[in-house]
């Protein structure tokens, strides 16, 4: 019997790509999402992309904090493992509305774990973030570096990580993998699913994409006086399809009876500066990106990239796509869907 995997947040950017890879790998998938930051169109398009596997995807529009609804779902469907991706993720918004972030990200996780426990489902993968490292003193960031989150969104991640460790310590039937993503970008090669930020994007790639399609006049570069090769910040960009496959690798690892509660970085292991990213995007799109050089963005750190050794060794996973691939696929998504999921189907 194929395994039944519940994916929370499966309509979102990372979730939709993960659901597709799971379906293609032969899993049956149940998605729970409140569509707070996503659209049902992503689910429909994932079903189409999955072809003959599309019928193995079932969607429930519900909020994770709605415990009776979640209990009903677990009572009606046998779930083998859960991939918990749902969450709010905007750093700026979390500084304005910290309680909304703590409420959604922490109560959501508690409710999910309680319902799983009550139904004897103790196999879990959780989305964490490189944000837990804050701005590390050295790179590459290893999983054993101290946690030092620097904003309310970031602080919700170590709280959930610690909660998972405590739950597993108390009951060793639990098997939990915490995945710390670096900077996910790009889109599925089909140009059919991708990221659809609401309002003004905060992150580099979606902002640059909107400049390239003519929605915004220029990209503001936040700081060119860092001690890096060209003075701009360095990050670890990872193709969202690679990241999605990292979840399939983690799911396979959950069959290891001794896994306990483990944490893995998912990144490319390579650092790329803002200006290098701009050059790669210009090449992929054939568009000139007008730049406005500005001061540093508050709260930004200089250089962050992942050590990927542990994921390579223990998950047998390694990012395959280059920055050029990420830019090509991001541009393909943008061209096919100038208004994201509000665009007609390409
Ligand atoms: P996203 O906003 O596209 O997807 C998150 C999904 O969760 C959305 O579809 C949203 O509607 C849903 N959701 C939120 N709260 C919910 C709730 N209470 N109940 C049900 N559904 C809910 O974001 P994403 O980029 O796909 O990020 C997914 C996860 O990865 C988040 O946990 C985020 O913190 C983490 N992460 C993201 C990045 C990034 O740059 N995108 C980096 C590191 C970690
Ligand atoms: C940001 C979040 C981080 C989150 C991550 C998700 C902050 C301080 N951190 O990280 O918690 O996990 O997104 O991917 O918000 N840049 C520009 N101009 C822009 C946008 C960005 O120059 O318009 C620069 C930034 O200064 C940074 C780089 O591009 O150096 C990448 O920025 P971004 O995509 O926001 O990611 P992070 O800063 O790594």
Automatic annotation (TrEMBL):
One of its GO terms (biological process) is galactose metabolic process. CDD domains: UDP_G4E_1_SDR_e. It is an enzyme of class 5 (isomerase). Its cofactor is NAD(+). Its EC number is 5.1.3.-. Pathway: Carbohydrate metabolism; galactose metabolism. It comes from Hibiscus syriacus. Residues 6-329 form the NAD(P)-binding domain. Keywords: Carbohydrate metabolism, Isomerase, NAD. GO terms for molecular function: UDP-glucose 4-epimerase activity. It holds the Pfam family GDP_Man_Dehyd. The keyword Oxidoreductase does not apply. Gene3D superfamilies: NAD(P)-binding Rossmann-like Domain, UDP-galactose 4-epimerase, domain 1. This is UDP-glucose 4-epimerase. One of its GO terms (cellular component) is cytosol. Belongs to the NAD(P)-dependent epimerase/dehydratase family. PANTHER family: UDP-GLUCOSE 4-EPIMERASE. It comes from the Eukaryota.
């Amino acid at each position: 019997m194929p395994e039944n995997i519940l994916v929370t947040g499966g309509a979102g950017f990372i979730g939709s790509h993960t659901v597709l890879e799971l379906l293609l790998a032969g899993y049956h998938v149940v998605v729970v999402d409140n569509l707070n930051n996503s659209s049902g169109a992503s689910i429909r398009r994932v079903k189409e992309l999955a072809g003959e596997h599309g019928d193995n995807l079932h969607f429930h529009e519900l909020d994770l904090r709605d415990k009776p609804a979640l209990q009903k779902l677990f009572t009606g469907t046998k779930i083998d493992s859960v991939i918990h991706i749902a969450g709010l993720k905007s750093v700026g918004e979390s500084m304005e509305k910290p309680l909304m972030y703590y409420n959604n990200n922490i109560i959501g996780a508690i409710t999910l774990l309680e319902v799983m426990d009550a139904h004897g489902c103790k196999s879990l993968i959780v989305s964490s973030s490189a944000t837990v490292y804050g701005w590390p003193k050295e790179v590459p960031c290893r999983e054993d570096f101290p946690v030092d989150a620097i904003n309310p969104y970031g602080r919700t991640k170590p709280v959930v990580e610690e909660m998972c460790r405590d739950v597993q310590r108390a009951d060793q039937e639990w098997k939990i993998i915490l995945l710390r993503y670096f900077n996910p970008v790009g889109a599925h090669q089909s140009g059919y699913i991708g990221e659809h930020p609401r309002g003004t994007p905060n992150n580099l790639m979606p902002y640059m994409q909107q400049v390239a399609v003519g929605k915004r006049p220029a990209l503001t570069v936040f700081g060119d006086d860092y001690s890096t090769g060209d003075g701009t910040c360095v990050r670890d960009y990872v193709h969202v399809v690679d990241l999605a496959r990292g979840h399939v690798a983690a799911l396979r690892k959950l069959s290891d009876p001794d896994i306990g509660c483990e944490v893995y970085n998912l990144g490319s292991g390579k650092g790329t500066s803002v200006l290098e990213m701009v050059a790669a995007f210009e090449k992929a799109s054939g568009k000139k990106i007008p730049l406005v050089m500005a001061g540093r963005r508050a709260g930004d750190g200089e250089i962050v990239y992942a050590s990927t050794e542990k994921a390579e060794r223990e998950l047998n996973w390694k990012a395959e796509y280059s920055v050029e691939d990420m830019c090509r696929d991001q541009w393909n998504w943008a061209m096919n869907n100038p208004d994201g999921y509000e665009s007609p189907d390409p």
